[in-house]
Amino acid sequence: MVQSRAGMEKEIVVMLPINQEERPSRLQGDCERCFGLCCVSLPFAKSVDFAMDKDAGQPCANLRPDFRCGIHTELRDRGFRGCTVYDCFGAGQYMSQVTYGGRDWRQASTENAAEMFQAFPVMHQLFELLAYLQEVLALPEAGPVHGAARSLLEETERLTRLAPEGLLRLDIATHRGAVGTLLLQASELSRAEAGRRFDAEAREVARGASSGSAGGRDGRSSSGAGDRSAAGAGSESAGSSMSGRGNSSDGRRQRCR
């Protein structure tokens, strides 16, 4: 689950990996095309993750005039670990280049800039949900909910095209709750399938061990060579079964600036 700043966003806790490298490019942050929205819109509090307090709508002291981070290469050393793990899922560049047509908050009126800062957290959540729904559709085990996932994906895509005033009126909590319910179902399906595979592998190992043991007893009754042969067969069976078990990995997110 991605970490959000200052607990602004309700987290959805599910057992789904989010691998940034495998996401569509539009769901990956591109700071070169963004106007530093996360560096202005979102608040943070002085803590182990941030070296100072910052209010929502207040530009970070490290934000340069070109919307780049002035201490990007030193973020962790300077006490801004939270920035290195933050992920906008592509919402920043979309809002900068599509929703506002390339007009940055420094060019906008005070009212429009404030609107931009208020709408960005909503857009961020929508893009986060898009990433999760794409993950569901990539899971074969979640096939029974793929139809519902596609419907929610289309609706979420539609919501990203809302004008700023529409984003501010959107009941994002209700939409997030609907997606969260589906993610939980997908997570349960994925875990159930993993459990079935594990049980099948365990039975395979047990059968191999049992066969090896029985063969060994028969071999001892006739010859020592037979004992060694049967034991070796049992060992190979168990080794073959265990070698088929896969390892899972989770994606890690990094700030792209």
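(the above was protein one; protein two follows)
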Amino acid sequence: MTARATPLMRNLLLASLTVLVLAAPVPAQEPVRWIVGSEHLRVLYWPQHDDLARLARETGEQALGRLRRLLNAKPAGRIDVYIVRSQAEFEELAGAKQSTWVVGLALLGRRTILLKPVGPQRLPKLLAHELAHIMLDVSMGPAARSIPRWLHEGIAQYAAHQWGRAQARTVARAALGNKLLTLDELDAAFAGKEDQVDLAYAESYTLVSYLASLRPGLGIAPLLDEIKKGRDVRTALGRAYRMPVSEIEQEWLEQTRTGYLSATLPPPSQMIVGGLFLLAFGVALILVRRRSARIRRRMEEEERMRRLMMNVRLIRDDAEPPDGGPDRSDE
């Protein structure tokens, strides 16, 4: 005889299975990247970086507008901007190991930018810097392979207005130590230690800024036009600015050597405080010396009076007769 489940038993069995399913642990789901986009940018990021992503979208479009005018180029499709959350993710997307102090990277062939989550004050210039690399690559086409590292980095910093007191101090210290990099040494310095890399970046900016001043209104465009024609950088420099390269280098280094020494001075507020301290010290020194002079004069006067009184006593003693009764006369 086969037992059959009653409706009550079936309901109890279903309820038990439901409780077991609800009680089973649910595996945690990995959060997915969020995306915000604009006409020329697509920003991919993690939820905790939402404010930075929206700032990147806004300021990135503004930077692209400036770069289109500067380099006469338009983005080829959208540019992907990744805001990463770790060094491991940064290296995974880059496809190679990266130094920990690298906070931004432009992958030119992929039209992709990698950013670490720097603060909102720093992010706009960092993004503009990396966008300049991509836009320069778009503008130059096949000739982009001929652009030296110093020119790429110098233009990117110049376009992003990345110059401050820290860079000026870096250049000033090198100038004081007679350690400024020459034109031929710049590219190799980017593969050096961190202090050499900092100097290479700073000097690249000063060189591009100097070249832009040689032909106002044209800026760096004449040099890029010559490189597009297939000329090497030294030949392109001479033809673009109608000067011997040795003269260009000498004038640039001289301006760099003398133009940033003020950066080694303390900030104006400290100079004012220091000046007031010296002034107060000088006044105090004068007052102390005057007081010392008055005391010295008083002591000298007291010593003079003491000697005078001694002399008076001596004269008086000489004038009085010796003791022994009155004088007698012969009778």
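Reviewer note on protein two: The beta strands are 34-37, 41-45, 79-83, 104-107, 112-115.
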